[in-house]
Amino acid sequence: MPAMPEPHPSAASSTDAPAAAPNPARATTALPDAVPHRYEAFVAGLPKAELHVHHVGSASPRIVAELAARHPKAGVPADEAKLAEYFTFTDFAHFITVYLSVVDLIRDAEDVRTLTYGVAENMHAQGIRYAELTVTPYSHIHRGIPGEAFMEAIEDARLAAERDLGLVLRWCFDISGESGIPAADVTLDAATRLAPAGLVSFGLGGPEIGVGRPQFKPHFDAARATGLHSVPHAGETTGPETIWDALNSLGAERIGHGTSATRDPDLLAHLAERQIPLEVCPTSNIATRAVATLAEHPLADMVAAGCLVTVNSDDPPMFATDLNREYAVAADLLDLDEHGIAALAKNAVTASFAPEDVKARLTAEIDDHLTTWTSTSAGDRATR
């Protein structure tokens, strides 16, 4: 799910979905409850990297409850049980309202740190060893948090997560597209002048319909000139032309979602030939109705074409999912065994902007987990 900007009169109609979806967080369009039982423990213990997951969109009910207790006048429930109901959306416009109400709970640097470290704890519990977390500085700076204080807070949480949890975090700063050039200017300033040490990439979120990619070319050119990688969302709720624009105008090195790529054989061949990674988020795509059903999800077609695909959770608590569940969905869609699931995990490492030593270590951990699992499973079979 792309970043959400500040509330404004058109917020209810400016979404990244082509149409409203009833109860997207509880979508029941053939989502499996879990991976096949024999793989569930394998996935839970699998060391993983995640490349497409949003900062505020990763706020769990526990984190939201803590922030709501600090700011009781905001009107957000501070009870986790009530938050489960609060996170049940009546339509997509309601989702935006709820999302923005969570953004409004983040009012100072301490709130930023609480959110960020809490997200890191949740990632650690899922076996995630490395993550590139998409952050939208404009949403917070626009609300009055000084940019310097915001950067200090996320960096403090990042360093603490690596020290305490062994989780390596990096940042993608993304433009909230529907807020236009002013948001792009603030985001570029945050990325280039404030430039936190953990920043590795520059992105573009928000709705795609009516928000052309080429208008942000100067901002991406400036960000790329400083060494940042280009990772815009494209082709989630629009056609293949948006992906071409992201590649040709923004120099995209990875594509966020890219759901419509399979509609254009030339584009699909281009992505496959150049191994431009696709950040696929299956549950999000179903919940937002970017894809109608899992049976129609293009993940298998992307893989069949030779594309480098990664699996991600987007806004996990908002859509009642997490990365382990997304691997469950992918395993079902692609009919994977343990070897295939491990290969999918390696794709994320390959596609990441992690330091080479981190990539090597995480790849080795995936291999070790697979070897241990398969040898133990073979031993169990031999004793039966």
UniProtKB/TrEMBL annotation:
Entry's EC annotation: 3.5.4.40
UniProt region (Disordered), positions on chain: 1-27
Residue span(s) of domain Adenosine deaminase: 47-368
Enzyme class, spelled out: hydrolase
Biased composition (Low complexity): 9-27
GO molecular-function term, one example from the UniProt record: metal ion binding
Keyword hit for Zinc: yes
SUPFAM superfamilies according to UniProt: Metallo-dependent hydrolases (SSF51556)
Name of the protein in its database record: Aminodeoxyfutalosine deaminase
Protein's organism: Actinopolymorpha rutila
Source species taxonomy: Bacteria, Bacillati, Actinomycetota, Actinomycetes, Propionibacteriales
